[in-house]
Amino acid sequence: MTVYLNGESLDFSKIERVINKREHVAIDNGAMQKITISRQAVEKHLSAGEVIYGINTGFGKFSDQLISKDNIEKLQINLLRSHACAVGEPFSEKIVRLMLLLRANALTKGYSGVRPVVIHALLDCLNQGVIPVVPSQGSLGASGDLAPLAHLALVLVGEGTAVYKDEEMHGLDALKAAGLSPISLQAKEGLALINGTQAMTATACAAYMDAMHLMQSADRTAALTFEALRGVEEALWEESHQVRAFPEQSQVAASLMRQLKGSRLMTHQGDLRVQDAYSLRCIPQVHGAILRVLNRVKEDLIIEMNAATDNPLIFAESGHVISGGNFHGEPIAFAMDFLGIAISELANISERRVERLVNPQLNNGLPAFLSAEPGLQSGFMITQYVAASLVSENKVLAHPASVDSIPSSGNQEDHVSMGTTAARKAVQIIVNAKKVMAIEALCAAQAADLHGSELLAGRTYDFYQTIRARVPFVAEDQSLSAAIEKVAEIL
């Protein structure tokens, strides 16, 4: 199977095929004409001696500095070398593969003025497994992701560093090992490779996909806890959710009811209590609101992954070359700040359910801290500490990056998005939230054993069995770190 790029129709199903199934990627035949016409327009403007930013001028504050025709190609390679100064841990292979895919798709849109060979170079690296080493820190999120994308682009010209077959090596050696050759850049092409939002958007896409997978586990985990705490069923009934009319809230409530069908642990109003605490009763409202945020984030990401984010943009039909600001990452910065806040809340309410599971004053007759021998053994007491620590860390990480801006390039670039920082924070929030939810799942499974797992609903029993296949009942005090990590892998 092959995924074809045209700059217009990339979506998450295609991303999953490329990233997870490693399907081949190619340029759609219908897009090749747009790419060719856009390149011809660049050469026409250049031949006419017109002054165009980034083609025959310097960059940023140097935009008024004219570059001679003899130095136009040197200008492009100098751009990559000078801008490749990012620092920190490299982005994951998954994110770098996404960067290659997204940058190729943006160039395929036909407003960047590059030759087809440049796009083929990106896709060759993606298809052959040449993964540029891209440090994750150093982007302001406008003018795009300059520093990270410069590291990506250097490998295409046989410089920089790349990983090929799990071995890190010089970019040229990686290309040769994969049977590829470096390209030489012509006018506009270096700038077209780095002036975009693909580092933040790739990170954001990875964060969104992980968040959606976590949401699918969140309802299962909450349902198991709902049973373990003998939750009051009426709070999940459809009629109360219909009158609020948020579709995601009703969706979560319906999901919980399906999973809890047949449970012999569920209660009704007045059996044990009239109503539950909010961390149980309001699961549909909170999880539904989080799902609504993720749906909005998905919409924004699909727009951005099919956007032209270069500067300048080449409009061959009108003859216009426009120096605009599509590289500004504000839409992604907002989306990732919002996603980070939402997933922080997912962990927040999960930790509150952990507290109810372990606290003998709140867990409806279960042993204190789910201990087999309370007092002699501490049981799951400290797992709640760990969950609380991770939730607190997430509250710090959830502070929005998009409200910050530091001027750069001699104050020419005087407002930036910090969108890449927002996306990187969102990834860490998701990692933390997954571990909090793993603690909840462990505690809920322990509580199910103490009640009698045969009393569980069919679907929650299946989930319980999935956990027990990795982590047995905790009959004696032991280190639970490995158990938490194992359940986090399941989630």
Query: Which sequence of strands runs across the widest sheet?
Result: 4-6-7
Name the CATH superfamily assignment of the largest domain.
Fumarase/aspartase (Central domain)
Give the integer mean of the pLDDT values.
Answer: 94
| The top level CATH class name of the largest domain | Mainly Alpha
Task: Classify the helix fraction into a percent range.
Answer: 40-55%
Q: What structural category do the secondary elements indicate?
A: mainly alpha
CATH architecture of the largest domain: Up-down Bundle
This entry's quaternary arrangement is: single chain
Rounded to the nearest angstrom, the radius of gyration is 26 Å
How many DSSP-defined strands? Answer: 9
The sequence of SSEs as H and E is: EHEHHEHHEEHEEHHHHHHHEEHHHHH
Give the low-confidence spans.
none
Distance between the termini: 29 Å
In percent terms, what proportion of residues is strand? Answer: 5-15%
Number of helices: 18
Molecular shape: elongated
User: How many domains is the backbone divided into?
Assistant: 2
